[in-house]
Structures are given as structure tokens and as C-alpha cells.
Amino acid sequence: MTDARQVIDNEVKSSDVVLFMKGTPQFPMCGFSGQVVQILNYLGVPYKGVNVLEDETVRQGIKDYSNWPTIPQLYVKGEFIGGCDITREMFQAGELQQLFVDKGIQVQQSA
């Protein structure tokens, strides 16, 4: 039995942009995960998708890790950004794009 917190911590710290989601970036298994995938793909930001449906301990563990009750969850450079609504609102306001730029992550589309 691996420690879910350690697994999550490693994922968050090993990639600049990590999306804990239901399904995969190619096949999102819920609409909210799909919306965040669409935003990240539109911006051309390289990211790692972690499918929480594959591991129940990670699925519950990510909620405890971030103290956030829902999935998807977006992390940038180890920092929890938010779920679908926050990500979408930041994107629409141009704040998400600015966050990526500020963190030194290449964005192919700007607002």
C-alpha cells in the first residue's frame, strides 16, 4: 500500500502543470475534467493528466491533499490553482494565461 499523499506530492512536484482528473486528457470521463482539458489544450500548455479513477486512494487522497472536495484539480508548479469553475473563470478573464507566463510556462494562445 503506497501512501497516497506521497504519490500525489511526487506527481505535483514532478511536472510543471498537473491535472488530477476523471479519465485521461485523450478521454475525459466527466464534463468538468473535459472543460479543463479543452482550456489547457487551447492554450497549448504541456501538462500531465492523472486519472483518479485508476486509484481510489489517489481519488480520495487528492481531496485531502488540497482540502478541495471536487475533481478536477489543477496544479501549476506545485501550487493548487482550483477546479473547473475557477480554472474556467481565470481563463475567461485572461488570468490563467498570465499565471502560466508568470510561472515561466509557455502559452501558445493569449487572451
Automatic annotation (TrEMBL):
Residues 17-81 form the Glutaredoxin domain. CDD domains: GRX_PICOT_like. InterPro entries: Glutaredoxin (IPR002109), GRX_PICOT-like (IPR033658), Monothiol_GRX (IPR014434), Monothiol_GRX-rel (IPR004480), Thioredoxin-like_sf (IPR036249). Keywords: 2Fe-2S, Iron, Iron-sulfur, Metal-binding, Redox-active center. It holds the Pfam family Glutaredoxin. PROSITE patterns: GLUTAREDOXIN_2. NCBIfam families: Grx4 family monothiol glutaredoxin. Belongs to the glutaredoxin family. Monothiol subfamily. This is Glutaredoxin.
